[in-house]
Specification:
378 residues; single chain; 2 domains; alpha+beta
């Protein structure tokens, strides 16, 4: 650290009130921006929970499907055709739908029901209580123990319920990688049972899940499925398409962007005004430095150095505060959809750099105009 940077730090720390005001202004801007972007990231991840939980390499679906909310059944012959494509290791049907469950207490609860392949049980959840083989019993269902599990009255093995006037029995509880977004509990059962007990259209397959023999076979499989009149997405392509749907085709993305922009403007205005007031109060000192030989470049470096110190401290405290609040919220609210990721931190850091640059700019404009003669004459 050179002498001018030392002087810059002393000037900055000398007025503790404005120094802490600058840090707090940037900290709250970062806090708000991090909360908004983390919430958006968490929501987007939860909308893709079914894709993540089932963990299939590729998904075959109707061409009209844009997101996991779309459930357009496809004919059974497509499954046989996909299985016959060269390069397909295996392909299984999936039922995904909603059902109105009548609990033993007499209360009704909407649920997400997933029917997995009878032969392979591909996509099954991790069992934490019970045995996966019990799913082959009559009327068997597996309840997912997540934040919405209590909405089913926290059933135990042997608990009975009704779905579409059919009896269901909980034979186990399981867990998945990620819970859903819309507060709906999830039940797993066999594909054959799901299409028998629940009302369906003429076609019953919601999606076809498949794994290729080799990643090199993916492009060929896509071409062949396209010839059948359907489309195929890889796991990541489906997640990206689902994210784009919620980001650009719903009001979710727009609202989050507006709130993030408001947070940025708040931080920009608070930091800019406070830093400008700080420069005005220290104008004589900067003039004295200029009088004893400090060049314009030296004064500019001092201002940038001071703004950078404030910006990095504000950013660090903002990230810490937002991470702490999110962690505490998740302890009390299991359904809280918010997650701090590296991209959200980089995005907030980039916005802080803009705030720091703007604050430095308005300070530099004032300092470059001062003349030592005017300072000493006053």
């Amino acid at each position: 650290m050179n002498a001018l940077q030392t002087v810059a730090l002393k000037l900055l720390f000398n007025d503790k009130g404005k120094f802490f005001t600058l840090i707090i202004g940037i900290m709250f801007a970062v806090l708000l921006m991090m909360l908004m972007t983390a919430t958006f990231t968490g929501i987007i991840q939860k909308t893709s929970s079914q894709i993540i939980n089932l963990n299939a390499d590729m998904w075959v679906m109707d061409p009209s499907v844009d997101s996991t909310r779309d459930n357009i059944p496809i004919p059974d012959y497509v499954l046989d055709a996909v299985r016959s494509i060269q390069g397909v290791k295996f392909a299984v049907p999936l039922y995904s739908g909603s059902g109105l469950v009548k609990l033993s207490s007499g209360r009704y609860q909407a649920t997400q029901i997933v029917g997995i392949d009878d032969s392979t049980l591909f996509g099954r959840p991790q069992i934490i209580d019970g045995n996966i083989n019990a799913i082959f019993n009559d009327d068997a269902f597996i309840a997912i123990k997540d934040s919405d599990f209590s909405k089913l009255d926290s059933p135990k093995n042997g608990t009975t319920f009704e779905v579409n006037d059919h009896r269901g029995i909980i034979v186990g509880t399981g867990k998945v990688s990620m819970g859903g977004l819309f507060g709906t509990p999830t039940l797993y059962t066999l594909y054959s049972r799901a299409i028998k007990d629940l009302p369906t259209t003429r076609f019953t397959i919601s999606y076809i899940l498949l794994n290729p023999k080799n990643t090199k076979d993916i492009s060929y499989i896509k071409q062949e499925v396209t010839k059948l009149g359907y489309k195929t997405w890889t796991r990541q392509e489906f997640i990206d398409a689902n994210s784009n749907y919620y980001m650009f085709k719903t009001g979710l993305g727009t609202n989050i962007v507006i709130m993030t922009l408001v947070s940025f403007i708040v931080g920009l205005s608070v930091a800019g005004q406070t830093f400008y007031a700080f420069v005005l109060e220290n104008l004589e000192k900067f003039g004295a430095l200029k009088a004893i030989g400090a060049k314009k470049r030296d004064l500019m470096e001092m201002i940038f150095f001071q703004a950078a110190i404030v910006g990095f401290l504000g950013y660090g405290f903002g990230v810490f505060a937002s991470s702490t609040l999110i962690a505490l919220a998740k302890l009390r609210l299991p359904n809280y959809a918010s997650v701090v990721t590296f991209p959200t931190m980089i995005f907030s850091f980039f916005l802080v750099l803009i705030i720091v640059s703007f604050s430095s700019y308005i300070g530099i404009r004032k300092i470059l105009k001062i003349e030592p003669f005017d300072i000493f004459r006053g």
